[in-house]
Design goal:
Elements (H helix, E strand, L loop, with lengths): L1 E4 L9 E7 L6 E2 L4 E6 L4 E5 L4 E6 L6 E3 L3 E6 L7 H20 L19 H9 L18 H11 L5 H7 L14 H16 L2 E9 L1 H13 L5 H15 L5 E4 L2 E4 L5 E3 L1 E3 L2 E3 L2 E2 L7 H16 L5 H4 L4 E5 L18 E5 L3 E7 L2 E15 L5 H16 L6
Parallel strand pairs: 12-16, 16-17
Antiparallel strand pairs: 1-8, 2-4, 2-7, 3-6, 4-5, 6-8, 9-19, 10-11, 12-15, 13-14, 17-19, 18-19
Helix pairs in contact: 2-3, 7-8, 7-10
């Protein structure tokens, strides 16, 4: 008997949500054939069959949130028995989850509401209404003769749990504010929230900022464009950062308890905003690629991001992150470190500004670079030198070849 599991593609990945089963129980499956679609913490992906056989048992249906590496289905031979203890374990877990969903709702403050005996309702319905502070007179019964049933009260509890409680309103001294719309957090949004809060609480984030004169880079970019193809500004920044990481590898690292681990490969993650939220596809071994190769890869990854076609491999393995908000008319911003990395570089928009060169005030195209780094791993002076190295490569881009 072969167990199908939700694989862990990322060390931080804890669960996956089953979106859709592509096969039904009793169907024949072949090794490597897609069996189901799963939404992970970064993307949606297919889980393939680990062997040939019959899909004997689906243990979790579509919509279930399942821990990674936990069996979700079984593949075996036609006459091969299913381990009963495994089925019983799953069924018991599902029952407990259903019970928790219905019964263990947050109770609502109920100092001013009492159950009215004259209302036609079952004893259990009255008990639930009183326990959860629901005015049973406001519930429309669906039982015989308009009798209020347990299910009617449970539905009222679910609706009431979405509204501000009396206690919440009384704390502010105001009436509850009407809610126009409730938007459930997607898995990607939850992951972003969890990781950024983790980063804010765990990393000793420190920020330094510099301004870069892009006059030479823009001229060089036009030279490359005329002979080959258009090259994005981000490609130069990725290459400059990767080269700087070669000289300052401490920023290509992670803090693991009492050890700083420096990565062998330099893999630059790029923050891209999509309708589903922020994703960070990775340019692997960016220091070993040309600017043209990086530019083409950025275009490909961006297109895949918007089409929701990024693979797990393209979304994992980043060792340093770059986020560019210049296209959104942002001059300067302070990004949050993408854990477990040590640093992140924020890029603003290109602006013509006066700068002093040889005691002369000249108007030049400039961009603000913001380096946020973990002060637990590295101190301020090395961080300044690292940022200066990036600045040097951008102001003299021919050294990037």
């Amino acid at each position: 008997m072969h167990k199908i599991i939700i694989p862990r593609f990322d060390p931080a990945m804890k669960t996956g949500r089953i979106i859709k089963w592509l096969k039904s129980e009793g169907e024949t499956v072949n090794k490597g054939e897609p069996l189901l679609i799963v939404e992970g913490e970064k993307t949606v992906f297919e889980v393939e069959a680990p062997a040939n056989g019959i899909l004997k048992k689906i243990l979790y249906q579509a919509g279930s949130e399942v821990e990674v590496l936990k069996p979700i289905a079984l593949i075996g031979e036609a006459n091969e028995p299913i381990p009963q203890e495994l089925i019983e374990e799953i069924e018991e877990k599902v029952k407990s989850e259903i019970k928790a969903e219905i019964i263990e709702k947050p109770k609502i403050e109920k100092p001013f509401i009492k159950t009215v005996e004259r209302v036609k309702a079952s004893p259990l319905a009255k008990k639930l209404a009183e326990e959860y502070g629901i005015n049973i007179e406001e519930i429309k019964g669906t039982g015989p003769g308009g009798r209020i049933t347990k299910e009617d009260v449970l539905n009222a509890i679910k609706k009431a749990s979405l509204k501000p409680t009396f206690a919440e309103a009384s704390i502010s001294g105001l009436k509850p504010i009407p809610i126009a719309k409730t938007i459930p957090l997607s898995r990607i949004r939850k992951t972003i929230a969890e990781r950024l809060v983790y980063s804010l609480h765990k990393a000793a984030s420190t920020t330094i900022i510099t301004s870069v004169n892009l006059e030479n880079l823009l001229k060089y970019r036009e030279e490359i464009k005329s002979s080959l193809s258009e090259v994005s500004l981000t490609a130069f920044i990725v290459k400059a950062t990767a080269k700087a990481l070669e000289a300052h590898p401490i920023f290509n690292s992670t803090l693991n308890e009492e050890e700083i681990k420096i990565f062998e490969d330099i893999n630059i993650a790029l923050a891209i905003h999509t309708e589903d939220g922020l994703v960070t596809p990775v340019i692997k071994n960016a220091n070993k690629k040309s600017i043209i190769e990086i530019s083409n890869e950025i275009k490909e990854l961006t297109n895949k991001a918007f089409q929701r076609k990024l693979s797990i491999d393209e979304l994992t393995g980043g060792t340093f992150t770059i986020t560019n908000l210049g296209a959104y008319d942002v001059e300067l911003f302070i990004p949050i470190i993408n854990p477990p990395q040590t640093g992140i570089l924020g890029v603003g928009k290109i602006e013509k500004k006066p700068i002093v060169i040889n005691d002369q005030i000249l108007i030049k195209p400039t961009v603000a670079l913001t380096l946020v780094f973990d002060h637990r791993v590295v101190d301020g002076v090395p961080a300044v030198k690292f940022l200066q190295e990036i600045k040097h490569f951008l102001e003299d881009p021919k050294e990037l070849n």
